[in-house]
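Trying the structure run again after the queue cleared.
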Amino acid sequence: MQDAAEHAPQDIEPMQERTHWVRAFAVAGAIGLLAGVLEFITSDAIQSLYPDRPKPPDLLFDLLPHLPWMQFVVEAIYVGGAVLLGVYALRRANWRKIPEIIALFGLMEVFRAIIMVLTPLAAPYDAATHFSLYEGVRNWGEFPSGHAATMLLFYLIIDKDEAPGIKTALLWMNVAETFALLMSHSHYSIDIVGGYLLGYFVYYEYYRGRMFAWLRPLLKV
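Done. Tokens:
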């Protein structure tokens, strides 16, 4: 009886940890699913309700060269940022942050889905010179830029003390992504500004604000 009592707490702790992991991933997955559903609905609404959306002028488009091939650079930088974040997150000291990281991107996409339907704009590029990897499930929202918001989150999530090299690399990748988005005409300049503001808002509101205070304990493991 005494041996059973001594070993009971050791058996409970792994069970509690597994429960926390399951709960955290379930919550993060639910946020991601909500984001996907909202983006599908609002993107479809944009295309259905506003098929003749305006294409406004953009000062930076006029000042910078138009290089359609830069869209490949946009995607390469985007994927490279995701790889660097993955390397950082899978380190032993950071793997417990994975549910929170997933949730952060989900929250950003939820806000983006709601915002992008408010002022629909036409795509800033000529479809004949632009490719899409996701033509079947294309997102018709332009503002704010999901690329810009995601790239900034990649950068903000990295702890400078833990991974200074990755942090610095992502800083310059954000700069390069901005120019690539503009020169490929993948996004209007206001989309990029809005994307960076959205990423900044979600990150700092989650970690330092009150809006997600109820959510943080559910994502801790």
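Residues 51 and 212 are 36 Å apart (CA to CA). Worth checking whether this holds up in the mutant runs.
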